[in-house]
Amino acid sequence: MTETNKSENKTKLRGLGLSETEALAKDLGQPAFRGRQLFRWINKGITDFREMSDLPEVFVRKLEEKCTAGSLELMDHQVSAKDGTEKFLFGLGDGNAVESVLMRYKYGSTACISSQAGCRMGCAFCASGINGLNRSLTPGEMLSQIMDIERYASSPVSISHVVIMGTGEPFDNYDGTSGFLRLIHDEKGRNMSSRNITVSTCGLVPGIRRFADEFPQVNLAVSLHAPDQETRERIMPVSRAYDMDELMAACEEYTEKTHRRITFEYALIRGVNDSDVSAARLANMLRGMLCHVNLIPLNKVGETGLDGSGRKRAREFAELLEKRGIPATVRRELGSDIDGACGQLRLKRG
Ligand code: SF4
């Protein structure tokens, strides 16, 4: 698929696969191997054709005339004084903007990227869904977030891990997400290991089934956030379309097919899903499953009217799960001083 920048009417190269870039080189009067060279430069994050030192002048001039790397516009950038987490607001060139986050860990640097501008899933605790969905992102726009984080980060960084956990529901944009996964995995491009990538869904069952078939090596995280159907329906409207039983059945199929452990995300909301009874129910539901629970002491999201349970309660909740044999950890609260929850940067500007 060729992505075209309407304003400049130029082809955006970051969204093209290797064979498409070879075809483009041929269209511009060059042999296919020039396309392979171009593909390598583009996937290294180089945006200026003049820096692509092994391309002939005639090809560079053609590229300048007809193509662009497709980089994003940096609209906002915050760096946490507490833990070094960096948040970026990137403009897509059509009035839409998305958030991306850089987190540095001992094992490497992780980019959390968005799959859609806005979201139509309407989770009660999430600022991203408040204004609904504007549009889905292309594979090139998803890849660009990683390259542009590396470009604009406060100090040199090479992203080794990616989580698709920013704004949007990746399986509501299955084509964009799968195209991105193929691009980033391409051994002639970034060649990122599937095992270093995690896709997080709010529970779109058909997407989970397709993903298990097509990307069995990529990690799956499921935003569960409730121990029963009634609570989940209150905070996650998607649960009316795909109820808890269907979701759990799809998750079991996933682990059987892939032999991979699912991470269940569980944001603790005061008075909604954080009681001892909730912990016991959750443990019963997950017993025997190849899984791990990631407890999130929710950042306070002013617009949603919901309160997080706090770290102390999160640790108690984790202990209750562990006692019942369910592995659980409390997620570190990164970037709490710089607009913590997903969607907050975008909302402020909007
Ligand atoms: S939590 Fe995720 S799926 Fe739910 S509304 Fe927010 S962005 Fe969408």
How would you characterize the overall build of this protein?
- The chain has 350 residues and is of the alpha/beta class.
- The chain folds into 2 domains: 3-68, DNA polymerase, domain 1, CATH 1.10.150.530; 73-349, Alpha-Beta Barrel (TIM Barrel).
- 35% of the residues lie in helices and 22% in strands.
- It contains 12 helices and 15 strands.
- It has helices spanning 18-27, 32-43, 57-66, 139-152, 174-185, 205-214, 229-235, 238-241, 244-258, 276-286, 311-323, 344-349; strands spanning 3-5, 10-12, 67-68, 73-79, 86-91, 97-105, 108-113, 116-118, 133-136, 159-164, 197-201, 219-223, 262-268, 291-297, 328-330.
- The protein has a 10-stranded mixed beta sheet. Strands 1-2-3 form a 3-stranded mixed beta sheet.
- Helix 1 (18-27) packs across helix 2 (32-43), helix 4 packs across helix 5 and helix 10 (276-286) packs across helix 11 (311-323).
- It starts with a strand and ends with a helix.
- Iron/sulfur cluster is lined by residues 119, 121-123, 126, 128-129, 167-169, 202, 342.
